[in-house]
Amino acid sequence: MGSASLLTPYIKARRDKEQRIYNDYQQLISQPEAMPVVVDSILMKKYNIKSRSTIWSIRGRVQQRMLQSTNELNGKSL
After folding, report:
1. How far apart are CA 53 and CA 40, in angstroms?
2. CA atoms within 13 A on the CB side of 51
3. Which 3 state secondary structure label does DSSP give 10?
4. Domains in the chain: how many in total?
5. Which residues contact 4 (CB under 8 A, 6 or more apart)?
6. How far is residue 25's CA from residue 36's CA, in Å, rounded to a whole number?
7. CA 10 distance to own-chain centroid
8. Which of 4, 34, 44, 55 is deepest in the core (most CB within 10 A)?
């Protein structure tokens, strides 16, 4: 992400929060017999999120950023 320095403090804080949510999701869902609905509920309570679709959207954005940064490192364009 060459333009990371051009981000506002709000965007940086939001991305940091989204990354924490993504990491927490991955940690919880990797446990044996973890159920996605329960994992979403835990994260919703922890981060004061009102909708499961918000968790889904956040995970998608973080995955897209990770894919984009991986492609940039490999010299590929999306």
Report:
1. 9
2. 5
3. helix
4. 1
5. none
6. 9
7. 16
8. 55
Residue type, 62: V
Query: What residue numbers bound the domain in which 52 lies?
Result: 4-74
Burial of residue 74 (number of CB atoms within 10 Å: 0-12, 13-18, 19+): exposed
pLDDT tens profile 21-46:
999 999 999 999 999 999 999 999 99
Q: Which helix or strand (DSSP H or E) is residue 72 part of?
A: helix 52-74
Alpha-carbon gap, residue 43 to 59, rounded angstroms: 12
In this prediction, residues 34-59 reach a mean pLDDT of 97
Instruction: Indicate the pTM of the whole model.
Output: 0.84
When mean pLDDT is compared across 3-7, 10-14, 56-60, the lowest value belongs to: 3-7
